[in-house]
Write a structure and sequence with these properties.
single chain; 320 residues; alpha+beta; seven-stranded mixed beta sheet; globular
Length: 320
Amino acid sequence: MSQPATQLEAHRTALTGHCYRMLGSLTDAEDAVQETMTRAWRSLDRFDERASLRTWLYRIATNVCLDARSERTTRRRPMSEGSAGTVTDTLSERPGSYFIEPIPDELAIPSDASPAEAVMWKQSIRLAFVAALQLLPPKQRAALLLTEVLGFSVAEVASCLDSSVPAINSALQRARATLASTPQSDPPKPLSAAQQKLLERYVEAFHRYDADALAALLREDATFSMPPYTLWLRGPDSVRSWLLGRGIGCRGSRLIPTAACGSPAFAQYRLRPQGGYIAWALAVLTLDGEHIVDWCSFLDTATLFPRFGLPLELPAPYFS
């Protein structure tokens, strides 16, 4: 790989994280980054070195995302579809491009990030934060991310967005007000010993398929959802009823730990009658203290598992 290409590639992970925050989709983010790299390569001979390569690339990526947003619907979460449902509600499905997708931590957080930077990067890709960002008009979202996540000055953002400093300050003020009014869980911190134990209990209870034990790990107002379905549930009793009712086919499943959206996550493999296991869901958990406050099981395993480096099938002896 040539030196210019290597210099561009060094920014791919960080750019993927930025495009993911802008678009709410791993698939769309990777497409946007590829378009960014293509535009940058074609224009490299015209790169003005008075600006840093990083700043120049983020300018291109941000404008690619703004262009993409005009062609795509806003990504959302099932909780934005209305009030909590019941276990007897009809399951309505949305297209794959409708809901926010999870992203592997390793594709959004640069490997050379410092511990403090890694915490900040994780906070910026949390499902709740990314969902809140989607409520902002695209240029407000871009201004907020460029300043508060990437550390750009207001003048740099104004140049990036072909705007003025007063206009960017106004956009930032409105964006911050919108986010302040949006419910979000506390920023992530390194998992405590108690939270590590909580996750161990979650896995053990799931492997036993002990619905009572799983419900006991949930906070009273915890949410449970299964994109691409619009149905979502609130509270331990509803989740327990789901697990013992329409979700009973998940009995016998096994979990493999991973990391997504700056949060603990598990690949769920469902037992097949003919033997072996098949990919069923990617469960992303949001923790608050010693409870689970959000359990989101993404069911589009054909799209997601390969991006997480996970097989779609496993032999029966795998979990023995």
